[in-house]
Amino acid sequence: MENLLKDIEEVLFNHEEIVAASKRIAKQIEEDYRNRDQEPVLICTLKGALPFMAELMKYIDIHVVTDFIDVSSYHGGTSSTGTVKIKKDIGMDIEGRDVIIIEDIVDTGRTLKALINNLNERKVASVTCASLVDKPEARIVDVEADYIGIVAPNAFLVGFGLDYDEKYRNLPYIGVLKKEIYS
What we know:
Number of helices: 5
Structural class: alpha/beta
Largest sheet: 6 strands, mixed
Order of helices and strands: HEHEHEEEHEEEEH
Mean pLDDT: 93
């Protein structure tokens, strides 16, 4: 990853820290859902949360069901447009199910709030969110993830699923992208 490292101003969270955060969240989910009648449905927000969900699932020691939803509020830019668009919807009936949204990052909160509202309209039993990264300084909408891996500063982050223009998702760490890359 030497080639891509030149675009990174600072590595904020290395791979070991991401794995530790994933293990901690997995144990919390396991404890919270162990004695439920049904296994929880993990809904991964594509594309960014895919590496996090893959890492997280390895450490959850109860049955879970998975599905995917592709939503966007960035539309190719570096900040949320405020308009949340569902590009690919989940494929299963989730009425009456406990749903856990798996997010790569909660920053403005717009996407998470829209997803929670959308899933509640489908009459789920409960909806919570596990987010690898939380950027509370960027919050515009009053919403919080229930399970948070890492709290980050309000900087433009890439790596481990987080992208700029579909690039940098494959980095095994999370770092601050150099401003000259996206300015």
